[in-house]
Write a sequence for this structure.
């Protein structure tokens, strides 16, 4: 990805290019925005070309729509949510904190372990979840969970990245409970992010099921991401 932070961007990129050269690898930058590419063009005029990568475009939604599931486009989501409420009227939503984060980590590990054999990319996800939840205060992460009969059955977390936008990094739920994904999505946005206009739910990584799910929430726009290679 394009270097971030206050440091010397060109120095960092030069070091990465030299590393690739020494190891016989082709230097590439992935998941960069148009703004990143403009900066890259300033540093290395005409040396790079840009290619759009649909698999890593971020889905962005209106917070109010996700929180209320209002309008015709969200009719099926509202039905799923209502079915969940009817089936589980005593469900509990909680903010993730030091007292309950370990339950979420355990649920995340079990969720990932069940899918690791068919999707190798999930193997590292449990580690990322644990790292994130163990450093919530430092990373300024907010999270929420849902309990059914006292047990954690869904959790999610993210962070506020600007005055008007929050990003949801992780969302896990028991797929056997109808409407649970919709409920954790709705409740989290409603409780954690009432002060932002947009929710970025990140990319689908080219996974058909994930793409279908994210498109079903009717994003208002996509944040396009690009890859670059040396000409």
């Amino acid at each position: 990805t394009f270097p971030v932070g206050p440091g010397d961007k060109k120095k960092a990129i030069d070091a990465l290019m030299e590393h690739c050269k020494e190891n016989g690898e082709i230097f590439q930058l992935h998941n960069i925005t148009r703004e990143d590419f403009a900066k890259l063009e300033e540093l290395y005029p005409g040396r790079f070309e840009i290619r759009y990568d649909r698999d890593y475009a971020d889905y962005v939604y209106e917070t109010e729509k996700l929180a209320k599931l209002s309008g015709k486009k969200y009719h099926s989501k509202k039905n799923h949510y209502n079915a969940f409420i009817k089936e589980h009227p005593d469900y509990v939503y909680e903010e993730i904190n030091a007292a309950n984060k370990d339950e979420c980590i355990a649920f995340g590990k079990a969720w990932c372990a069940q899918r690791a054999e068919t999707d190798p990319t999930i193997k590292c996800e449990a580690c990322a979840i644990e790292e994130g939840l163990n450093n919530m205060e430092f990373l300024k992460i907010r999270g929420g969970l849902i309990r059914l009969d006292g047990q954690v059955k869904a959790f999610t977390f993210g962070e506020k990245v600007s005055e008007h936008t929050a990003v949801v990094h992780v969302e896990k739920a028991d797929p056997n409970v109808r409407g649970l994904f919709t409920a954790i999505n709705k409740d989290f946005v409603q409780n954690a992010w009432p002060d932002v206009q947009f929710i970025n739910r990140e990319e689908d990584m080219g996974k058909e099921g994930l793409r279908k799910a994210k498109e079903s929430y009717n994003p208002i726009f996509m944040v396009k991401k690009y890859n670059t290679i040396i000409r």
In short: The chain is about 40% helix and 25% strand. The two ends are 18 Å apart (CA to CA). The mean pLDDT is 94.
